[in-house]
Structures are given as C-alpha cells and as structure tokens.
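Exercise 7. Given the encoded structure of a 535-residue chain, write a plausible sequence.
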C-alpha cells in the first residue's frame, strides 16, 4: 500500500453516510482503520486501488454505519455462552431437565448457572420455577437461575450455602421471595441477589475470554459495532482487557462500572479508587465509560407514581435514598467520570431528575453528557421536557418492551405499558436520545431494534403506536446519536472521511423492505476499524 492507496474499496448500490443532507454515495475507500474517501461515482475512487487493495463490487448492496447498542450486557452474554441454555425450554419440565442434564456431568457441590435471556411467560406454565422444583433437578448442586439483571431463583442448596432462612433480614432495595404458604420460594430480586451471587465462582479466565469472543461475534453478526455494557464489575473489566489482548473482542466496548449493591458515597469512593488504573487509556476498542447506578427495580419493582395494577398497595422500589444517591453521583463526577443511572418507573424518573438537578447545581460547568438516564421507561411529557432542559441524555430499549410487554401488563396494566419508551416524544423535543436492547431482557440486533421503534410491535401486538418514529430517525438513534452519547461523534456515527471505518453491508436496502423482513434482516458484512468481523 502507498500513502495514497486504499486497503479496502467498496462499490455499492448505495452508501448512506447519514451525513444530514448528503445524497447516497456509490463508493467508499478505507485506509488503515479510517474512512479515506467516499464518492457518488461507483468508480470515483478507483485511483486509490493498488495491488494490495481489497475490492468489493456489490452493485445491489447498501452500506450503512455500524450500529451501537447503547444499553446492553455483553458480560452477561459472554457468561451465558457456558451456562445451561434454559431459554430453549418450552415448559418447566424441559427447563428442569436441562438443569438435570448439566448436573449429571457436573461434580457434586459445584455451582450450576443458567442463561438469563428467557421470560417465564414463554413457558407453558407462565411462571418461574420454584426452589422446590429446582431441588428435583438436583439437590447435590447449588443452582442459580437468572432472568435478566434483576431476578434470581435458587434451589434449597444455594439458600443453605448463603445462610438464607425464614429469619434473614431483607436487604434494603431487595426482595426475598415467599410462596403462598409464606415459606421461601427461592426468588431473590435486586439487592437481595447479592446474598447468593457473591458465593458463585466465576468461570476461569480462558472460558470467560472464549465466551466474550463468541458473544461479541454474535453482536457483530447483527450489525452492531459498538456496545455500551451497563453492568461491568471491576473483575469483569479485567477480563475484557484480557479478551482485548487475546484478540477476542469483535466489537468496541464502552463499559459502565457497576455500583449496584453499593449504598453510600464512601463505598463508591472505594470503587473509584479501583477505577483509577483505567483512567485515560486510549484503546479505541475498549474503555471505561463511567459508573452505573440503579435507582429502582426492573419489570417487577420499577418505582411508579401510581400503585401497580396487580397490587394496589405496591408502587415499586427505590433502591437509593435520594440524598445518598446525590452524594454518590457527585463523588463520581468530581473524579472526572460519567454516570448512567437506571430509572424505569415514572417515580424513579422524577426522583433521578431531582438528584441530577442537585448535582448540576452543586457542580457548575460539568461537561455535557456527564449524567445519563438509563431507560426512562415511563418518562411523561413533563419529565421529558425537564430532562431536555437539564441536558440529560437518555437511552431507550424498544426490544425490552417487545419481549416483556405481557409480563409488564400484569404489573402495570395496558395503559402504562403503551407509554413505555416514548421515542416520538423524545425525538420531537430534540432530546439526546439513543437506542439499545437491554439484552438479556430484550433481544439485541440492529434491525430488530429499528423495526421495533418504527412499528411499536410487541409479543402481544402494537403498543403505543403514537410513540413510533421513522426508519431514518431510528437509524440516527443507533449511530450519530449513540456516538454522541459516548463522546465519539468526531470518530464514529457517520461514514465520513477521517472517521473510523465502522460500517455494515446489506444485500438489500433495509429502508426499502417490508416491516416483517426488516425485523430479522442481517448484514452480509460488518466492518470494525477497517477489519471484517463478519463476511
């Protein structure tokens, strides 16, 4: 290659740069890890071809930027590569049999874990298994069944190892489940999960690296080039660094270091001390973005202004005292890190904006985007306007709504579920809004998310069609808006000379296919930093 040549040249039917006002181009050249040039003429960059240039003539193809998933859990996806695949079960007997098969080849006393990307309403019984049922699969191994990031079910062996009895105090911000008879049923929610999870040994380093290799390749295969992992413990970040060194990361990773389970600013300061070693690293593939807090629960415990439809005495759970959270957030931003906080119900959204407003008042001049709202699920018009006025970015996750709508209707009722993730309202206000999946609660995938935001389809039909946005707007939420969230708009998000060569190639234009085709459409190629991740 010469200084003026290209390593890669793609001639396509259309190269959508996503630069506002720019017509589709027909050729794109890459030099190293950067876009070198684009041209409206399919042969307009032929002068960059040398004997070492890889040329792809794809006259029917469409090229788009690679997509971001701005709120997902790659770490959990990597761990799931080795876990019992209960997401394949159709009923509780199949669920238990999968665990039983793993127990048959697992030494007695060793932990058994399951995958997390399943929903109980997909089981014929339409409920979670109980500790007693898990005991029938094995009483010789502790079993940890995870569903998403907020719910565990464990067997009696695990309860005994953790010392959980009828008299165990319920941790603040957590739930220790009981059955109709008042006895422990193995269910642990939010801050109660740590009672057991602290005992579970992690897979060894080699297994975890291979899990990340497989999981990151799966993300890339759907068109995703960058993930913002919103629940990374310090030990997980070290595994990510090892995976990076081993060449096992197929996507860029922006990690939020988890403060979940912490309850004071002093504990957060200890976490920040650990994070100092990662400050200022310039690795374009892997970086620590900031700190993740959780203000309320998930599907079963999101903090709402009005009581739950299924229990008029319950309005969800606030995990932090607002004053304590303000002190903890302030500790983070004063150390120069950013903050993303989970706020799902409308009460949590209101309280979080109170907290963020207080932090902004006490710390004038904070860099834009220092404080982010994760989810903002039930943010109404008043709170959306307030977030925009405060300059608070928000991440939304339509795949989460798609996969859990039926579960959520049981807790909140149809009217509130239809108001979740109001993309139209955010976009019309000019909000700093970007999109993702919240895997394993929602299914990741570039076009699956776009399809969901344009149709508002869920597993139980269309919910809140007035909140749908256009195809072009949905693309922007996954590209330019997402790159703005991570502070990388000068590097990613559009196909512009000088930016990183992160792009996707599709055998048809995703904007010109029927909705039902777009939902499952996959790229033929994903390129990250000028290198083909999938072909």
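Solution.
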């Amino acid at each position: 290659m010469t200084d003026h040549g290209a390593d890669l040249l793609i001639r396509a039917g259309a190269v959508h740069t996503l630069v506002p006002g720019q017509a589709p181009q027909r050729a794109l050249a890459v030099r190293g890890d950067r876009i070198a040039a684009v041209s409206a003429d399919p042969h307009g960059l032929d002068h960059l071809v040398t004997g070492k240039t890889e040329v792809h003539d794809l006259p029917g193809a469409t090229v788009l930027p690679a997509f971001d998933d701005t709120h997902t859990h790659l770490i959990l996806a990597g761990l799931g590569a080795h876990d019992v695949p209960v997401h394949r079960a159709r009923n509780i007997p199949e669920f238990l049999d999968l665990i039983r098969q793993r127990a048959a080849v697992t030494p007695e006393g060793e932990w058994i874990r399951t995958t997390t990307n399943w929903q109980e309403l997909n089981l014929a019984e339409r409920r979670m298994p109980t500790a007693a049922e898990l005991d029938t699969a094995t009483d010789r191994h502790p079993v940890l069944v995870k569903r998403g990031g907020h719910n565990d079910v464990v067997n009696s062996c695990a309860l005994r190892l953790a010392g959980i009895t009828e008299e165990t105090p319920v941790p603040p911000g957590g739930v220790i489940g009981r059955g109709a008879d008042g006895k422990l049923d193995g269910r642990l929610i939010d801050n109660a999960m740590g009672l057991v999870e602290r005992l579970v040994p992690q897979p060894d380093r080699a297994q975890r690296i291979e899990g990340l290799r497989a999981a990151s390749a799966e993300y890339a295969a759907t068109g995703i080039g960058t993930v913002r992992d919103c629940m990374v413990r310090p030990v997980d970040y070290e595994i990510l660094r090892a995976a990076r060194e081993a060449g096992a990361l197929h996507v860029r990773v922006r990690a939020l270091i988890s403060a979940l389970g912490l309850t004071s600013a002093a504990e957060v300061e200890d976490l920040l001390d650990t994070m100092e070693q990662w400050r200022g690293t310039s690795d374009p593939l892997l970086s620590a973005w900031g700190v993740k807090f959780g203000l309320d629960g998930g599907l079963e415990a999101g903090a709402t202004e009005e009581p739950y439809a299924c229990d008029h005495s319950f309005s969800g759970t606030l995990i932090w005292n607002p004053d304590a959270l303000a002190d903890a957030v302030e500790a983070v931003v004063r150390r120069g890190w950013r903050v993303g906080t989970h706020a799902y119900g409308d009460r949590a959204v209101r309280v979080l904006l109170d907290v963020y407003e207080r932090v902004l008042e006490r710390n004038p001049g904070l860099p834009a985007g220092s404080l982010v709202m994760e989810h903002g699920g039930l943010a109404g018009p008043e709170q959306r306007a307030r977030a925009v006025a405060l300059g608070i970015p928000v991440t939304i996750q339509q795949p989460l709504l798609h996969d859990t709508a039926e579960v959520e209707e049981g807790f909140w009722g149809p009217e509130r579920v239809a108001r979740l993730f109001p993309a139209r309202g955010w976009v019309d206000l000019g909000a700093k809004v970007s999109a993702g999946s919240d895997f394993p609660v929602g299914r990741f995938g570039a076009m699956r998310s776009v399809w969901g935001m344009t149709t508002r389809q869920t597993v139980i039909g269309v919910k809140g069609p007035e909140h749908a946005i256009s195809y072009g707007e949905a693309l922007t939420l996954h590209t330019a808006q997402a790159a703005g969230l991570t502070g990388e708009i000068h590097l990613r998000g559009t196909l512009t000379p000088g930016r990183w060569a992160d792009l996707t190639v599709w055998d048809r234009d995703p904007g010109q296919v029927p909705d039902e085709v777009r939902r499952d459409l996959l790229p033929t190629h994903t390129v990250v930093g000028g290198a083909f991740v999938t072909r």
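Remark. The longest helix spans residues 205-221. Students should compare their own answers with the one above.
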